[in-house]
Design a protein that fits this description.
Blueprint lengths: L1 H34 L2 H35 L9 H7 L4 H51 L28
Length: 171
């Protein structure tokens, strides 16, 4: 059991480090979204994906360790989580404290990352709404009759103009 706990602590520590690497990447992503730099955004998303792949591998390893701990203590692995493992470790205070520390650090880091990602999501949503507004404005401006030219007396000047619409009626 001690080796499983050490493996769990190591795995969680590695996960925590990768999540910490993701924090500055997410902050940089915020700046890139604000600048509207699509090329840099693609590069940062690729970097995020690489780190997410590493996290997924560690998550599978963590799940396997938890499953093995469940087998050793004769409990259903689906009912065991980190908090349950911490509660089982009363006779191993050093490992228990390490696990508590890593768990708390991981939890704080993930919460910070979630906050930054929610902010990025909001920025992207605002950007999409602005694009939709501009497209609707351009489309409605194309469909207005006349050309709204005014003379000095603020009266509309009637000018015949060649207006292109959505469809070519000459065909």
């Amino acid at each position: 059991m001690a080796s499983l706990i050490e493996e769990l602590i190591t795995t969680l520590g590695q996960e925590s480090e990768i999540y910490k690497e993701l924090l500055p990447v997410a902050r940089e992503k915020t700046q890139i979204i604000v600048k509207n730099d699509l090329k840099a955004l693609q590069e940062i998303v690729d970097k995020e994906q690489t780190l997410a792949d590493q996290i997924n591998l560690l998550e599978k390893k963590r799940e396997e360790v938890i499953k093995n701990i469940g087998v050793v203590v004769s409990r259903d692995p689906k009912t065991i989580n980190i908090k349950a493992v911490i509660q089982m470790m009363d006779k191993q205070p050093a490992e228990k404290n390490k696990l508590i520390e890593i768990h708390d650090t991981l939890k704080r880091t993930i919460q910070n990352l979630t906050d930054i990602n929610n902010h990025n999501k909001s920025l992207i949503q605002q950007s999409l709404e602005m694009i939709e507004f501009n497209m609707n404005f351009i489309q409605s401006a194309r469909m207005l009759p006349g050309n709204n030219s005014y003379n000095k007396g603020a009266a509309q000047v009637e000018m015949l103009s060649e207006q292109t619409g959505m469809f070519d009626a000459k065909q």
